[in-house]
Structure of Putative RNase_H superfamily protein:
Amino acid sequence: MEWSKLEDKLLTKHYPILGTKSAKFLHNRSIDSIEHRARRLGIKYMPIGEGPAGYLDIESSGLQGDFNFMISWCIKTADKDEILKACITPEEIFNGTLDKRIVKELIETLYDYRRIYTYYGSMFDVPMVRTRALYHKLEFIPYGLIEHKDIYYLARRILRMHSKRLESVCNLLGIKGKTHIQPRIWVMASSGNKKALDYILGHNKKDVEILEKAYKKLQIYEGRTRRFI
């Protein structure tokens, strides 16, 4: 069966990152067919950890994925002036669809990266997104596809400080830009206030920017342990 232009486009996009697991997007193709087509088109699979990297941070209405919802997410592409983002709308809060769209968009965007950096993301961001995906009956990313580096644990291992919060680490490293959100803004955002939602998205963007700066100053102390989303 001839390969369509759409199939070639999907293969070109996903094979370098997912390898034969790009079959997830090519339902009518066997593993052998995918590998043969990739060789014919000259598409190569990148080893784990190589390729695009990004800094991820999410904001939510609370800390528990079964009781709360995601307000926004941002991914800053490493070493580029590029921030991909999404924010829940007042209409989505009012009509009850909540964060389904932005969760779906985040999962789709994560497939474009080989490595993701977070701060305490292994305990909050990633489990929160996974929980919200399951809530909305969306398929989350299978384990082992995207490398995950949690900078919180790097900071905890190499630094002796009164607090390991990202703000404290940035203060130590002389990194400015961390913003604060008053409780009232969280409440207003969770209720669908547009200005409050926009403010939180701006805060979210600042966090991924300073996260990249913090990692660049700490990376020389990083171990070789490899973990995944």
